[in-house]
Write a structure and sequence with these properties.
The structure holds 2 protein chains of 2 kinds. Chain A is mainly α. Chain A has helices at 2-10, 12-33, 37-62, 70-87, 92-114, 119-139, 141-144, 166-188, 191-201, 203-208, 213-239, 249-262, 267-283, 291-305, 323-336; strands at residues 157-158, 161-162. The longest helix of chain A has 27 residues, at 213-239. Chain B is globular. In chain B, helix 6 (120-140) packs across helix 7 (155-168). Chain B has one domain (3-260): 3-Layer(aba) Sandwich (Rossmann fold), CATH 3.40.50. A 6-stranded mixed beta sheet of chain B has the order 6-7-8-3-9-10, with helices on both faces. Chain B has a 4-stranded antiparallel beta sheet with strand order 2-1-4-5, covered by helices on one side. Classes of the chains: A mainly alpha, B alpha/beta. Chain A binds chain B through residues 183, 186-187, 190-195, 197-198, 201-202, 204-205, 207-212, 219, 313, 318-321, 323, 326-327, 329-330, 333, and chain B through 51-53, 72-74, 77-78, 82-83, 85, 89-95, 97-98, 101-112, 115-116, 118, 123-124, 126-127, 129-130, 147, 149, 165-166, 168-169.
Chain lengths: 337, 261
């Protein structure tokens, strides 16, 4: 036992794994420690925003394209999911996949005209896109029921077992977040992810080594919007009521703030950013009227003293293929042959 | 195959300015060709047409018996042309090794689905990529710096790293835009040795732009001289040194006459 502990602290990689395992175990035990619907609700919201900020990080943090319309994708996913589950009685998990695909298609459509734009201009186009989508939600009454929104969206069910308790939703979103993190981690620490990051750094240099920026920008838009759609679909099923007021510009900016505050181009940063920006307004409830004021001040201070975010790129794994582990693996292969 | 690159009557016009005027050239396999000329002669513009940053206004470019005039920059890399930049364009936030890895075709063309699925085979493939890139780092003399961020390397090493990055794309032809700029004489000697290694041991072709005459004369098999967008001379270093038109382009006309008066 003692030797195992010593071993753990000698290998930083292992240490990290154990820390991650403990964190996941704590998160899994959370509903048993604090069984309180309010806390659970906040935790679920954090989960939704973690997925949203992770997905936006794909466009903004890794590929370097500023997007101010992320709430629109969130909304499209929510409406698509809601309509499918409500009108067609589609299974939640199937609706999740369809939401991903439909929202991804919207991402592609927005992605195509924005390929020639960057920086401020791209931001304005995405901003406009967000507004158009919101107006469609309000005015296309036959489908979206206008400003009244969609009510009584069914809860997810797994083979007849309906997830109606809060803690069940909590576990569902926890699993979804872990899955997204797992896949994103693979995506980022790969040749594909590196190619994305070269586009953020220098498009001309990227082209000079055989990387086609259009391809990576479009894929980033598709994956990112698709993931936001998944978050939207879960949200619709969780609160069982959606209306256009949720998917406004303000939400887009909040998600962007999570990404920037957490650290552009950092997965851990997105998680921390989403958690902090969801929790702070709740924690500050006791000063009611002044809480948004204080919240703003905190953000300004943060940007002055730690502009690269809570967990910026400087903490990035400098070896994306995790070479050391690979090398050991390789040596073992040689020995076993 | 003896001819690797051919440009036929290539011109580049920006608005009213003719940056490159009707240039034709052929590059033999396994030769070091240099492009010299005063500032603003159109050397970098010509490079940009070869690599696909600009599309020539007229003329065409043949690379290994294939017309590449209409190919985009990234497609030309796949055909085997890679380059460095006059003002270094490394990925500053990536390590030296990562700068090479991302240029490796098997790395940056990784398939999205395979990346998400993972697996042993992918790991083995990546191991091979890393090893190949480390070999290239060894060649350019940056093996010890592999973990260092590109931005933290000294200027001369950054130039070498950029050459390494160009080599990592597994090119047939490497275009070097002022590789020796900002290097001291010792570094330039190392650079000469490196370029010789690239051409002789690795079998690549090198086309380079350079201002340092000593360096150019020492390394080139053949030199092309550009002035005001036109090709004014083409020959081995000794011919170029004594070519009156080249001297005129660099030093201006009338000086000899002045002395005689």
């Amino acid at each position: 036992m003692q030797s195992i502990i010593i071993d753990l602290f000698q290998k930083p990689g292992q240490y990290k794994k154990v820390a991650g395992f403990i964190l996941v175990a704590l998160l899994a035990a959370f509903p048993y420690i604090y069984f309180n619907n309010y806390y659970l609700h906040i935790a679920i919201l954090v989960g939704i925003f973690v997925i949203l900020s992770l997905s936006l990080n794909l466009i903004t943090g890794f590929t370097g394209q500023l997007c101010l319309g992320h709430a629109a994708f969130y909304g499209v996913g929510a409406y698509v999911g809601a309509l499918l589950m409500k009108n067609l009685q589609m299974n939640f998990f199937l609706a999740l996949i369809v939401s991903f695909l439909v929202t991804g298609l919207f991402g592609l459509l927005l992605g195509i005209p924005t390929l020639r734009l960057r920086g401020d201009y791209l931001a304005i186009v995405t901003l406009g896109f967000g507004e158009i989508v919101r107006l469609v939600f309000i005015n296309w009454e036959e489908v979206t029921n206008g400003p009244m929104g969609l009510r009584s969206i069914p809860a997810p069910s797994i083979m007849g077992f309906v997830l109606k308790e809060r803690y069940m939703f909590y576990y569902l979103i926890l699993i979804m977040v872990l899955l997204v993190l797992f896949l994103m981690n693979r995506l980022i620490n790969s040749g594909f992810g590196m190619a994305m990051q070269t586009i953020k750094a220098d498009e001309i240099a990227a082209e000079s080594i055989g990387i086609y920026p259009v391809k990576y920008k479009l894929i980033a838009f598709i994956l990112s919007s698709g993931l936001a759609g998944v978050a939207g679909c879960f949200y619709a099923s969780y609160v069982s009521y959606i209306s256009p007021t949720t998917f406004v510009y303000n939400t887009s900016v909040t998600i962007l703030a999570m990404v920037v505050l957490g650290g552009l181009g950092s997965l851990a940063g997105s998680v921390i950013g989403a958690a902090v920006l969801t929790l702070i307004p709740e924690v500050l409830r006791f000063i009611s009227d002044y809480r948004m004021l204080l919240f703003g001040a905190l953000m300004v201070l943060m940007m002055i003293f730690k502009p690269e975010g809570f967990w910026g790129v400087s903490k990035r794994v400098k070896n994306i293929y995790k070479l050391k582990a690979g090398r050991r693996h390789h040596e073992r292969d040689i020995k076993s042959q | 195959m003896s001819e690797i690159l051919r440009a036929n009557n290539v011109s580049m016009v920006f608005g009213g300015l003719t940056a490159v005027d009707n240039i034709s050239l052929a590059m033999e396999d396994n030769e070091i060709l240099s492009l010299i000329g005063p500032n603003g002669a159109g050397k970098t513009t010509f490079f940009n047409m070869l690599t696909g940053v600009y599309k020539p206004t007229t003329g065409n470019i043949i690379f290994m018996d294939e017309d590449i005039t209409h190919l985009k920059a990234h497609q030309r890399v796949a055909k085997g042309i890679s380059r460095t930049f006059q003002n270094i364009r490394l990925f500053k936030d990536m390590t030296a090794l990562e700068n090479l890895m991302v240029a490796h075709p098997r790395c940056n063309q990784e398939n999205l689905a395979r990346v998400l699925l993972g697996g042993r085979k992918l790991k083995m493939q990546r191991q091979a990529i890393v090893e190949e890139c480390e070999e290239i780092l060894e060649i350019v003399g940056l093996k010890e710096k592999e973990g260092e961020l590109a931005t933290n390397l000294p200027y001369g090493k950054q130039r070498l790293l950029e050459i390494g990055r160009a080599l990592a794309t597994d090119p047939k032809l490497v275009l070097l835009d002022e590789p020796g700029a900002g290097m001291n004489s010792v570094e330039k000697e190392e650079l000469t040795a490196l370029i010789r290694h690239i051409t002789e041991k690795m079998g690549k072709n090198v086309l380079l732009i350079e201002h340092d005459m000593k360096f150019v004369m020492g390394i080139s098999d053949r030199i092309l001289v550009l002035d005001h967008g036109e090709l004014i001379a083409n020959g081995v270093p000794r011919e170029i040194q004594t070519n009156p038109q080249v001297i005129e382009a660099y030093l201006g006309k009338g000086m000899i006459d002045d002395e005689e008066e």
